[in-house]
Amino acid sequence: MKPMNNNTLEDLYKKAIKEKYEEVKNGDDFYFLNAPTRGKLNKLCWEKFANNDMHSNDLNVFNSLLGLSFDISAKKKFKQETDLFRPVEKFFKGETDPDKIDVVDMAAILVDFNPRPFNKFRKEIDPENLKLIEELRDTKHYKPEFSSVGFSNEIEIKNFPDLKNEEVKEDKNEEVEQDEADVIEQDENQDLETIPAGISTPVKIGGEDRVKFRWKRYFVIASFLAVFVIIIYLSMLPKDCMQWTGNHYERIERSGEGYCDTYYDARYFDLKKIEVCDSTKFFDDNGRAQVWYIRVGDSVECYNQFAPYPENTQRFLKPITQYIIKQYLSDRPKCN
């Protein structure tokens, strides 16, 4: 069994997006997707971003792949960047298998595949479930397919066919019969001179061990499924609360009525409000934003990661851009 690495996850991600593409290419975006060209995909991308309130992850993909931030007033400049959509075109047509994950993320945006981008897709898949899937690949009970919303049935345990009693019984009978035939054939080929005359040697059915092994394998798989169900059940139990205090979150107990203003979420618990200065590094070596912001009146607040805005969780932090830095943070103080 090959190890569960990012390559395996990327393959699942790409396959799910291609399934989604085949599903929607004859739908509302038929003109753009049925016979995709880089020019058509450029226009479709603009329509997606101009007419929808895109998530910050999508804005990050836009910035990373195209090398520019989305600006509603820069349509003319954007229309000139058709060549940047060539890898996406070839991916949809099945001509290439892109190495650059941003290309696949952009394809996911254009066909409205979720969960996206790849990092979010990767985090929502339990590696233990993937290991179980790999063990099931060689059995007749494994039937991989993708649902219309993009989630792989490979990772939805409920979509695995049950190991029905009749099927198990049939497998057992087939194996016992095969083992009997093997033993008889082996006995016939033995050197008869080694068997003393007048002594009958009973034929021993040796298939029981193999049947037991198969049952043990089913038991292990069933145990994995049981653990998975327990994990799901525990995840649905009431959660702890967290409260924004000053510049960070703190865990708190529930109210007397058992409710939370903000339920504990490990993804956002490490969020911190930061004070930027003249040496703050806003982007990593690949040009990706590592400071997030939100506009509050005539100023901006900066944070260390993506999350809902703690003062109003209906709003979301956005990745910093050169425009925001120049417009609001050009006079930031010197670092101590």
Estimate nothing, just give the exact number of structural domains: 3
Q: Report the sheet with the most strands, covering strand number, pairing sense and barrel closure.
A: 4 strands, antiparallel
Roughly how many Å apart are the termini? 53 Å
Q: SSE order in H/E notation?
A: HHHHHHHHHHHEEEEEEH
Mean pLDDT: 78
Number of helices: 12
Which structural class best describes the helix and strand composition?
alpha+beta
Report the strand count: 6
Level of helix content?
Answer: 40-55%
Question: Which percent range describes the beta-strand content?
Answer: 5-15%
Low-pLDDT stretches are: 140-170, 191-205
Q: How are the strands of the largest sheet arranged?
A: 3-5-4-6
What's the gyration radius in Å? 29 Å
Instruction: Please tell me what the overall shape is.
Output: flat
Transmembrane segments: 218-237
Keywords: Membrane, Transmembrane, Transmembrane helix
Brief summary of the model shown:
The protein is α+β, with helices and mostly antiparallel strands and 336 residues long. It has 12 helices and 6 strands. The longest helix has 28 residues.
